[in-house]
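Batch job 17 of 40 flagged for manual review because the log was empty.
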Amino acid sequence: ARRRLFCRVHLRQDRCAFRRRHMSTPQHHIIKDTTATMSRLLQDELRKSGYKRVNIIDQAPKPDAIEGKLPAVSVYLYQLVVDPDAFPSGPTSEVIEVQQADGTKREMMRRRRTWVRLDYLVSAWAQTPEDEQILLGLVIRILADNVSMPRALLRGDSFDDDFELEVILSGGRLDEGTLSRFWGALNQPIRPSVQVYTHVPIIPETMSGFERVRERIIDFRNGQAPNGGLERFPSPDPRSIAGKALADKANPPATKQGGKR
């Protein structure tokens, strides 16, 4: 079981583990921070394009949430999938380098990070269908221009320093029955919307010390050994085969130098 565990360990260097343990925002706030990042991105880019009065709504687009806020763009997290690309043969743990308080680094082991897929539905709301379609086209252009968001654009402290958020426009579409149930639950008619998704990690906090193998000991059977055939390598017993091998390696036989006849 121990051998099987270490065969499924993934080695990575975590430069931010020490900072995460001492920051005020827990890492599991990353889902909330991702939604805030998406909302701020759309708001900033809409203002740059001249749409300064468009409200960003990061909740379910119910009538009471939309009323009095037109024009508006809704960024709604409607579903998430935990570990969408998990494989049974994948690594179950990972070895990381954690910086200690004194500046030294120590190798630690923890359960591997759990990736979560976040699916968003983006819809536009305005006085006329034409204005809504213009806003939807602008939203698609903004998302297409920001498929990879660097750490400087991410809001909150839950992201690692080198993390980049990949924003992917979904090429598929929800079927009519799903759309009807979705908008019907919100007391709204079916509306055109944009599907977009991303992936974020949830990082475990529990870690344990990890020590690498420094010496290997092999047991084998030798029919000529006086102790019943069980020997251990390396062995200090000069009578064993392993001991003789060590002795020969430490004191190699002298080579004879021959002369010309």
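Reviewer: the log was empty due to a logging misconfiguration, but the result itself is present. The CA atoms of residues 82 and 116 lie 5 Å apart. Unflagging and moving on to job 18.
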